[in-house]
């Protein structure tokens, strides 16, 4: 599916000229609500490092080259090193306990569609209720987005 032509872009899309937005803008009823939801997740309660780590692991699991390409720079800006970004693709890489928890959430949701009791208990120890909900929604959203990007054949910029 081709992105909406630039002359039809709204102000948000003009300010954020990514193929994902220009393509989703073809559905004017859903696009504004999608942007609000995506924006809430990207500007939520989770630390930026945790958010980007979860997104990259989800992109890896889903084989989403688009999401990987779009989130490597924000991941680095959030404090992940080049080596850490590449290590996201290595299931047995060594991580801090905090980072490993975020990766485990993405792994559990990808492989089982649920969190193990151990992952949930660790999540409860580390995050408040709002952050727990947000992390699960973030991983679920980016799994869905990967499917949408792949199905609509959205090209990397």
UniProtKB/TrEMBL annotation:
- One Pfam family name is CMD
Sections of the chain in a coiled coil = none
Q: Where is the Carboxymuconolactone decarboxylase-like domain?
A: 28-89
Q: Which Gene3D superfamilies match?
A: AhpD-like (1.20.1290.10)
Where does the sequence pass through the membrane?
Answer: none
Q: What is this protein called?
A: Carboxymuconolactone decarboxylase family protein
């Amino acid at each position: 599916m081709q992105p909406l032509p630039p002359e039809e872009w709204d102000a948000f899309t003009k300010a954020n000229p990514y193929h994902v937005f220009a393509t989703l803008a073809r559905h004017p009823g859903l696009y504004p609500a999608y942007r609000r939801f995506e924006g809430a997740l990207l500007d939520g309660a989770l630390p930026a490092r945790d958010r980007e780590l979860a997104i990259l692991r989800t992109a890896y699991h889903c084989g989403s080259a688009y999401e990987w390409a779009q989130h490597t720079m924000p991941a680095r800006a959030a404090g992940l090193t080049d080596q850490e970004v590449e290590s996201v693709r290595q299931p047995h890489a060594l991580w801090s306990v905090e980072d490993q928890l975020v990766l485990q959430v993405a792994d559990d949701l990808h492989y089982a569609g649920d969190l193990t009791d151990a992952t949930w208990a660790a999540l409860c120890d580390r995050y408040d209720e709002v952050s727990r909900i947000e992390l699960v929604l973030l991983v679920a959203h980016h799994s869905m987005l990967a499917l949408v990007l792949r199905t609509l054949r959205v090209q990397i910029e």
